[in-house]
Amino acid sequence: MVVTRNIESAIRYYLAIREALNAVGSPYKAVVAFTGKKLVDGVEHTEDSLNGFPGNDIAKKFKDDGYRILVVANKFLTGFDEPMLTTMYVDKKLQGVLAVQALSRLNRSNKKLGKEETFILDFHNTVEEIKDAFDPFFTSTALSQPTDVNVLHDLKDHVDDSGIYEWGEVVQFNELFFDGLDADQLSPILDTAAGRFDELDDEEKIDIKIKAKQFVKIYAQVACIIQFANADWEMLHWFLKFLIPEMKIKDKDQDEIDGLMESVDLTTYGLERVKIGHTIGLDDSGSEIDPPNPNPRVGHDDPEKDPLDMIVAAFNERYFNGWDATPEEQRIKLINILNHAMSEPAFQNKVVSNPDEQNRRIASEALFEKAMRNERRREIDLYKKYASDDDFKSGLHEALMRMMEQVLKSGDHRPVG
Predict the structure, then answer these.
(1) How far apart are CA 151 and CA 292, in angstroms?
(2) Whole-model pTM?
(3) CA 320, CA 313: separation in Å to the nearest integer?
(4) Helix (H, G, I), strand (E, B) or coil at 146
(5) Which residues are registered as beta bridge partners of 120?
(6) Distance between CA atoms of residues 219 and 151, nearest Å
(7) Could you report the per-residue pLDDT of 286-320, keeping only the tens digit for each?
């Protein structure tokens, strides 16, 4: 199983793996799993169009000898039971319960069929992060307090009041779904609701989508242990489960991060082995986890993100994985370099007062290089990577450039505090 960051990544991985298998004349095939449709390089893809068979058949096909590689984003990370799954490549941030559920796809032993060992190659998560995720579930685990089932009433009321669907559509969807009709006959109902959702403002979209996800999650968990006689909850659960992927929200933060990452030349992809054959020791004492939040959340409750922190976090996530430094220490590394550059006498004339965008960029990069040389003794590892890796250097320059623009936009031409 190849675990990727999002649907677009899953499609690109799948196409690259398929091409590599064909190039060596391999008898084996790959299969990709994701929900809905995705436009990549001007081409709209679905599971069916890429795999050549219906998405409902993926689990069955993967049991066949002809298919050996399953590429996923979110689908099949939980609840997928395939005893012959032996290997996982992870290019996605995994935290908490998701980390436990995803990596546990490999847990099934099957000596009868020749499965005697498993292997995980993780490009994205540290040993400490995985240990932290597994520790609460290593021995006995209990809820810190009971789950309040009544929260489902509140969540349903919130989503009903949004006006993105009429109850007759929920009933119709369930009738068609449980009659086994094809997805193309269900899509018009979902498209109608998704169209109404698109007409909401951004804050309303975030609130409604969060509450819809909460309803689906809490109902699914509690329904496993309590028999409900509430048919409306059951029908809404199935309707929302399929509608949520169609509830699109434009992520402004992601747009900025995408702009940063697209500017980095990734024609080469350097690998550094951080851990191999590492044993993770888990805490064998009992633990306690919190039940689902009984309070319906809203999207705008989160504190506003600092654009500077967002740029630093994007660069750190790409290049600093595996370093023995806290996020704050990593942030300080970049800010120190920027401070050196902005403290130079030439900064005001060649950058701040320079109307020519191209010359301004050249001058900025020259100041960044000088700042790196000034920091090389204190940050020897960082400087070595900077001097030897053109992709890293380009990414660092772009991150510093965006940080600098944010500082200048604030009206403060002094070094960062």
Answers:
(1) 10
(2) 0.41
(3) 10
(4) coil
(5) 88
(6) 10
(7) 555 556 555 555 555 444 556 667 776 776 666 65
